[in-house]
Design brief:
The chain is an alpha+beta fold. It is about 45% helix and about 15% strand. Strand 6 and strand 7 form a beta hairpin.
């Protein structure tokens, strides 16, 4: 490992979400932030950020992943520095990170259910969703997420509601954005005409106001609009929407542990979307769970 860390080339795997950008002609990219586990590079657009990730970093769906742990890495750059990106590599001062293969980021897929078993399935979703009520998440964010999802499910414009959330809060991924990721992932996981239309509505509103948040967060919102997220979040969304209470209980702690509040804020968005589906979702989506919006959500 020591010899690999000091090599002039660090082999890596690139996400298909940013493979084309990495393969393009070399150009300068600005370092947004440099942490032991990750280097965030701003590419050609506000919402195009390439995370260069150590093996022990959170597996962001847009990342260029190394096989080396953070303790073996020294990026050699700091926030504000510029590096060359292109021709399949990132040129750091002392070495190149070279994409030798692609990796497949985690993605939610529609949870399709037979109409004949809808009541049973919806009861299962209610049980899985009650697990979320035990989480210490923001009740305010949960309510705002429910409002966004409810408006979208009714076919209304979500632009003003989304604009109030995008960029709201501190950090590289503000709380409002994390909650919206939960909304987008949940709607994508439900699938079907109404949920897909609602997801497209929220995604369109996010694109319209993405300039109001950080570049990293804008890029992750774009990924969530396509159903992509870190594996921990995808596992939780699948379990909840799929009505697996045991799996939801097992998956929840790992998501809550993400960042300072990022994981909890995403859970608030997921829970709020389930609330909205219970109240406004078209039959047979969750008709037996209208009480969910009154549960849990203790952290403001």
């Amino acid at each position: 490992m020591a010899s690999a860390a000091h090599s002039s080339v660090w082999p890596a795997a690139v996400s298909p979400l940013l493979a084309a950008e990495l393969a393009a002609a070399p150009r300068c990219a600005r370092v947004l932030a440099a942490f032991p586990t990750a280097l965030y590079l701003l590419l050609d657009r506000h919402d195009r950020v390439l995370p260069v990730l150590a093996d022990d970093a959170l597996r962001l769906p847009t990342g260029l992943r190394l096989g080396l742990p953070s303790r073996a890495l020294d990026w050699g750059v700091a926030a504000g520095s510029e590096v060359l990106v292109g021709d399949g590599r990132v040129r750091l001062p002392q070495r190149d990170v070279v994409a030798l293969r692609e990796w497949r980021p985690s993605r939610v897929s529609p949870c399709l259910r037979e109409t004949s078993s809808a009541d049973c399935a919806d009861s299962a979703v209610a049980a899985a969703s009650r697990v979320l009520a035990s989480a210490d998440v923001s009740g305010v964010l949960r309510g705002l997420a429910a409002d966004v999802a409810g408006t979208a499910l009714r076919g209304g414009s979500t632009l003003l509601q989304v604009a109030a959330l995008v960029g709201a809060g501190p950090g590289l991924t503000p709380s409002g954005d994390d909650a919206l990721c939960g909304v987008l992932l949940a709607l994508r996981a439900v699938g079907g005409g109404a949920a897909d239309a609602a997801a497209a509505s929220v995604a369109g509103a996010v694109r319209a106001v993405a300039h109001a948040t950080t570049s990293l967060s804008a890029s992750l919102l774009g990924a969530a609009a396509q159903g992509y997220a870190v594996p921990e979040a995808v596992r939780l969304v699948r379990a909840t929407v799929g009505g697996d209470a045991r799996e939801t209980s097992l998956a929840l702690p790992a998501v809550l542990a993400i960042g300072h509040t990022s994981g909890a804020d995403l859970v608030a968005g997921l829970a709020g979307t389930i609330d909205a589906l219970a109240r406004h979702g078209p039959a047979p989506l969750f008709p037996s769970t209208p009480h969910l919006h009154t549960e849990g959500a203790s952290r403001a």
